[in-house]
């Protein structure tokens, strides 16, 4: 349990922080919106857990990051009983079949996400038609037990990074991804980081 918590607990949050900063530097108006919200709420002091609830744009930016940079693109479940799947599959799969749930596909399915192109980062995005189409932490009894902890860690660190430094993208190319237990960048993501004036 300790080793799985360490394995599941380190790369996941570190990569989410990385992908959030990447998404914000690539979307300067979202970056400004989130930073202004943080500056006006906190006036430079370090954030507390209670502050995170009062930063709705930060939450939207992190949720868009979870949606577009899904760390666990697939989950799997073994069917406990023979189960009928309606159209388009229209088939009954036997008990014990392993079913893959493609979270990253659901996260950008045009049938689920109204408004702007689901492949784009949009801070004003509405929730999906079916709530099950957004599952960065999984489902049900086997869902990630650390969602609250992970969201708090990511939120607190991103706030501090935005309070203390200016971030700009130094590279506008496509960042290729690779899956190694979780989805990470294939190469470097280049950004400029400067201390913010006091
Ligand atoms: C942004 C951070 C994280 C994301 C996106 C994430 C996502 C996930 C997902 C998708 C699953 C599989 C859920 C399913 O199959 O329904 C999972 C399972 C798990 N996660 Fe996380 N996780 C994160 C952080 C953490 C942290 C910080 C810890 C521990 C400190 C942790 C511990 C675990 C464990 C132990 C499981 C296995 C649960 C089980 O099989 O019953 N995760 N996580």
Automatic annotation (TrEMBL):
Signal peptide: none
Highest taxon of source: Eukaryota
Swiss-Prot/TrEMBL keywords: Heme, Iron, Metal-binding, Monooxygenase, Oxidoreductase
Molecular function GO labels: heme binding; iron ion binding; monooxygenase activity; oxidoreductase activity, acting on paired donors, with incorporation or reduction of molecular oxygen
Family matches, as InterPro entries: Cyt_P450, Cyt_P450_CS, Cyt_P450_E_grp-I, Cyt_P450_sf, Cytochrome_P450_monoxygenase
Residues holding heme: 144
Co-factor requirement: heme
Family designation: Belongs to the cytochrome P450 family.
UniProt cross-references to PANTHER family, sorted A to Z: CYTOCHROME P450, CYTOCHROME P450 12A4, MITOCHONDRIAL-RELATED
UniProt-recorded name of the protein: Cytochrome P450
Organism: Blyttiomyces helicus
